[in-house]
Amino acid sequence: MTPKSSVSNKKNRRVKDINKNINTHEDKSNWETDNTIVLRSRRIKRNIPGGVSATTAAAAVTRHFYNTTSHRPQLPTEIIVQVLQYVTQIHDLYTCSLVNKQFFAISSPLLWKSPKLNNKGILRHFIACLTMADQPQLQESLSIGRYIRTLDLDDWFWTDTEFLQLLPHVPYLEELKIIYKRCRKRTITNASLQYLPRLCPRLTSLSITRRTLSHHTIFQLGHHCRQLKHLALYLCGDLPPDTLILLKDCPLESLLISFVNRNDPLNHRIVADLPIFDRLTHLVLWNTSVDLVNSLFPPPPSSSPSASSSLLPAQALPTTTTPNNSTSTSTSTSTSISISISDSIAKSNRAVRSWPHLAKLLLRSCQHLTDATFIPFIQAHPCLQEIDLHDAEFTDASLEVMAEALPQLARLNLAYNRQISGLGMRRFLVHGKCRPHLTLVTLQSCPHVSPKEFPGAASNRDYEIILDQPAIDALAHLD
């Protein structure tokens, strides 16, 4: 073999070795890309201190993977979104946001969705950060205010000044609750609340306690917040009488009003407009007068004396004396009574106010709520799931109708009812169509209901009987 040929063979062998090394390196790189998280997580597991949560450890592994892999492949955004939905701790979300830009973009909306502001110092720092992040020269991704959806504001830390500084930075706010805990002179007032609807038009839930709301503020709320579904006004004084008329363009589903003065005649004008909201599922009225509650349950139309006598027992029906001095029940009178009953029921059903989707009803001062007015209301609202009534005067007859007409009823609270009996309540609990769904029944200060009739009650005292679902099921088995 000539020297020239030997040199050529060495070169060929060297090229083959280089190609082999390159292929081996590529295979190793591909294998490492597919298995990096598993292998490297084992290596760095020893370096993670004890007591660190699983989310923090996973974030550390992922960050290590992204920082040391040359390809830096991106995980599908959909997968990361699904995973982070299960992360509930704030410090874990913060750790995830430090992995890379992709994790930061996905974690930030969850991290800032509902910030907790517990003291004055945090509040001032928070508003300063919002103002700085909204500067035009900064990137839009740094504007954390657009991620905020829910805020609970404590009276002790907030004034009109801070509230007005906050509003321009939270245009996508959906839920706002202004809590009243302590008496202070400087607080959030109508002076700043009037700007809330225009600056936060995406509100879906608003809860305000102990504030005076002007006609202009209510008008702005109805004009700008066309997505408002839940409204709670606790002891808000001087509400305009056309409050609900001004909110007619809001698709209200839940309404809570706690009146300041129960005897204020303007309250009747507010309640008179409730039928506007046919989407109502929750209706709660506190500190109401008897007349106000009666306006929700219109009495049946006035009927003739014969119709009134139809409510009496059969032996009390009017009698007529024949020429033969024999006493008998008048057939014509009975016929007219039956016609009057049918007409009265039909008119009563037409007169009752109906919210076809109503699921929760909570009322106080129901002293004049009797079977004649409550039974038509029950029949017109078969979707009721929770009933809470105080001082009602309906009898076991209403319980029997509830047992048949309300198959979805889950919670029942009757307080100071002087007409229902323990036997009637037991029949309702055992034979009612709602029994599979009933989870809680509370009877408070009902004199004709004895605690001895409900041996499995969770709270079995002379003035209060609480029946949870196990007690109701046990009562059904006993009967």
From TrEMBL:
Cellular component per GO? SCF ubiquitin ligase complex
Region span, Disordered: 304-334
Which positions fall inside the F-box domain? 74-115
Give the UniProt record's GO annotations in the biological process aspect. Answer: SCF-dependent proteasomal ubiquitin-dependent protein catabolic process
InterPro entries this protein is in? F-box-like_dom_sf, F-box_dom, Leu-rich_rpt_Cys-con_subtyp, LRR_dom_sf
Q: Which domain of life is it from?
A: Eukaryota
> What is this protein's record name?
F-box domain-containing protein
